[in-house]
Amino acid sequence: MTEKPALDGNEDRMWLGEAESESQLATVNGPDEADTNDEDRPAWDSKIQYVLAQVGFSVGLGNVWRFPYLCHQNGGGAFMLLYVFLLLVVGVPLFFMELAAGQSIRQGSIGVWKHISPKLAGIGYSSCMVCFYVALYYNVIIAWSLFYMGNSFQYPLPWNQCPIDVTTNDTVSECASSSPTTYFWFRKALNITNSIEESGEFNSIMTVCLVSAWTIVSLAMIKGIKSSAKVMYFSSVFPYVVLFIFLVRGLMLDGAMEGITYMFYPKLEIWGNVQVWRQAATQVFFALGLGYGSVIAYSSYNPVHNNCHRDALMVSGINFMTSVLASLVVFVVLGFRAKNIALRCVTENLGLLSTMTSHSSSQHSSPWFNMTDAGSVSLDEYREWYKYYGSTVGPNITDCSLEKEMNKGVEGTGLAFIAFTEVMALFPASPFWSTLFFLMLLNLGLSTMFGTMQGILTPLMDNFSYLGRHRTLLTVSSCALGFVIGLLFTQRSGNYFVTMFDDYSATLPLVIVVIFETISVAWVYGTDRFLDDIEVMLKWRPPVLYKYLWKYVCLLAMISLMAASLLRMVFKRPTYTAWNQNTASEMTLEYPGWALAMIVMLIVFASLPVPIGYIHSTLKNRGTPNAHSEEGGGREVHRELYTKCSSTDQLDSDSHQVPSEEHDAGPRSTFLPLVHEHYRLLSRQEDDDEQDTGV
Fold this sequence. Notes:
Elements: H1 10-16, H2 19-23, H3 31-37, H4 47-58, H5 61-65, H6 67-73, H7 77-105, H8 109-116, H9 121-150, E1 164-165, E2 170-171, H10 173-176, H11 180-189, H12 204-221, H13 225-235, H14 238-251, H15 256-264, H16 274-287, H17 294-299, H18 308-358, H19 379-389, H20 402-407, H21 412-424, H22 430-463, H23 465-469, H24 471-486, H25 494-505, H26 507-538, H27 545-571, E3 575-580, E4 585-590, H28 593-607, H29 609-622, E5 642-645, E6 678-681, H30 684-692
Antiparallel strand pairs: 1-2, 3-4, 5-6
Helix pairs in contact: 4-13, 4-18, 4-22, 6-18, 7-16, 7-18, 7-26, 7-27, 8-9, 9-12, 9-22, 9-24, 9-25, 9-26, 9-29, 11-21, 12-24, 13-22, 14-18, 14-22, 15-18, 16-27, 18-21, 25-28, 26-27, 26-28
């Protein structure tokens, strides 16, 4: 990759303060020469490989268990409209910006921002730090999926019913007070403690699963994109096959249509809630993988003239449609689950009602349907009777509302490892469906994990030649380090640390990273220059609308999101959901002081590289003689000037002919090589002439 010319203009020099920016103009090559210099850089074998990699990274577990929950809690169809609006005005422009920057400079996140100015290199290091945070806990979720998939090869499924306590020959009380799936998750899988302050010993089974997860990632990444891209053919496509299978199967279930109706019913009043806007913007932000550096890393392996604008629209559209597809599957399944719970409620109540009426002479509140055959009584019939007579039959007879069950929002691990496992236990051939589901989660997690690791490895290999020469050693060492630190999450209290990392380690640092990315492109480098470079790549100029979106709308949106996140952390003390073994129920607890300090440290360590990079570059430049003059020395240092020649001009170094006006233009600062432009060194006389004319 050839060096690019530095930014010109007094203001840019003042801000950047780079001696090399003022003293030299890099050699500018034609496209063939640029390609020759990049021959040693890996490249995608095909466009489909690249698209699958970007889609696999951006479409992750959040599409399956976070987006449906947000729709569920925030107005269904109204939230989707708000999400689409923010996706178009904020998500797509920022995604396009990262794709274009990576493709044009052909470097990882560190190299891209360092290319604009060495003072901005810290942005890339912050991205790497956040990627490492995410990789640590994300692989734990993959380990959980491996554990559940391994337990799916038995019939009946181990979470189908409560176990028996051998000492009392009775059902285990913790399971009887909750549910078989809840008990299996908290006690058998996690063996969780009552709070984060009780660390407990290591969970040996989960430790083995974590070793397996990191081994899979290491083997898939060991040859870079050449090996991971081949895995992507399966890991990116297979989840869609499973989602469609589950959707078709789910539509045949009783309660499916009620679930879909609940999902799409719009509640437009939520648009006036600031928190809903914050949640929608955050989901757009994380759904596209902005700020991680993975988008930049993947696009850096593209040909220079690849249509990255089309890629941005396509990947964003696929991401959104995947979220909608996953939401349909989730609401179909939750509708079936809610219908089953409501019908069980009807059966229990009819049993109590039958007992009560047999001991009572009063018949005025007796239902008009057959109480002895609960299967013949529909939910609507029971609810209609309860509406008129429920108040007369005592507190033991309750309403059985499907809407009430649907209103109980389930997200994250609770959706995947409790709600879905409960439903799959009801399916015929339940081990098949369970294996299919957790294999889908495994592949969703792995495809995102590959992108996350690429966001760490690519920038390091691009910027440190030793690491670039020892790719295999770097990959294996990174995975080994990730496993060692990841042992924190295999303690009995490990789930609480996963929640902490998921909620706080990435959100604020990534928003800060994207804010500085946007400032770098829109205000430091300049949107007009950036659009010029994109025009060279695409052979056409993107709409000028992007200029204003990058400079104002996206930047303002990101700053607002950062402010909202900070205010929420300050005014609402961070909490987590703990499982109490004695009451067999979940409870909300506040983080202890040491945990709050850990949260602050996570955020600070991920954000620090940005100011440290700026300060380091500034101090380094102060020790470098200024390109124009040395203060106190009184000696002027004349920089060499180059002027542009046509390809037919003779590049005679002894010639003192003043160039024509056509070639008097100063050097143009770009990301990309300019096509077939050559430069010759000006003599001192020509240098003076150039300065006299204001060039």
